[in-house]
Give the backbone structure.
Amino acid sequence: MAAQQSQKDWLSAAKRVLSKTHLNLTWDEFADLVGIERRAFKTYRLPEDSSNFRVMPPLATAAIKNLLQVSIIPPAESAKPPSTGLSLLIPSLAALVMRQARLALVEGKMVAGNQKSYGMPVGLLPEDRKAMSLVSHACLALGQPDWGSEIHQLLWQCTKPLGEWLPIQEVTELGYIDTRLIHAEDGTPTAEAEELSRDFSGITASIEDQLFTKLVEVLSRFPEKSANKDYTAVREFVVRNPVVRVENLRKSELDVSSQIWLLMQQQFYEPVPDGWNIGDGVPICAHCGNAMQQGKAGLVCRTQACTVSKPAAVAHTIKSLDLMRVTRGIRQYWIEPGLDEIQMYDAICKMGLPAELYPFRDRVDIAVGDIGIDLKAYSSPEILGRKFCKSIGGLAHYLRKWVVIPDWLIVAHPSYLDRLKVTAQRDELLFLKLSDALKLVKETTNA
């Protein structure tokens, strides 16, 4: 919707376009096509200075845009299978995931399938029901079970690749086959879910921002240089210690303010459950220091990136009573991506190069002189590419801008970098796999 065009004018223009394929289209029929209650639709068409005027929610705007796209398909393409409306279905499903994640992770409330009403702390919002109904419609059209009928069942399906349970045309065409919206073990939303929901979730701050609000608040009281140093120290410690002995957490000599250290103990770590014991204690991964669990063929690390990139190896075991683990929100936002970040940082330091980890409170993951490096491990290069289409973030502060993808992800998807380049359309970015980036950073800094 153009900034200079009023909502009323935009709706009138949309109606004129749709009337070409829906003869004699009335406003009530228009409302029915979009799935909006007729009385509510009238409030969207009023002048903006009217007391009854209402701004359309993002889902309604997206639904109309989808109808407009379908209405202008050229005749030569009419033989193609009908679109299921990805512009509405997938982002609205991702938005539902983000809303439920905020409820569970930030507000500490349970996910419930009842309709939310005044005074009730939990329940589904109208936009949640809308997303569920869209999933149900797509499933039924495909002859699949109705995965959208119950919220817990739907969220469980979201832990699986979209192509496995929602094989609609657009999931295949836009490269979302391997995309999961929720991590199965932690129940936290994936980076892909957050990116897909960015314009639909109704959440002004990301889940990560909300989880670390207290840390940001405390750091804001310190001088910038000190705040930057403490942020890097805390984040590095957490990434290197996904589980930590209780005694080490209490008496660590980490060089940060006492206020920051106390906050980390109280909000970043929690007791390890007894169920993590296997035999005499909790097995600890020899590669990343995280706890291990029993897999189908033996012990596996609880860090996904470690599991897919390295052979299982136990360093030692520690009784669960003597251990603390990072909370699940931090596991997802810091530990999972942090494994490759820390390994690359350590490798660059071993070369004798002046690498900075998480400079300026995470402007980029690693900086080496005028090189800014962001490591990304999105399962879908198309989603990551569209993210960079919108913004390159902190990389804008660096002369040389590198986006680095872990080798294990390239092995799983050999065409990953090519697909990423085509989608991102950013000539100023250099896309590399991690092993090539390590070679190039040495050549570049020694030149």
Summary: The chain has a mean pLDDT of 84. DSSP finds 22 helices and twelve strands in the chain.
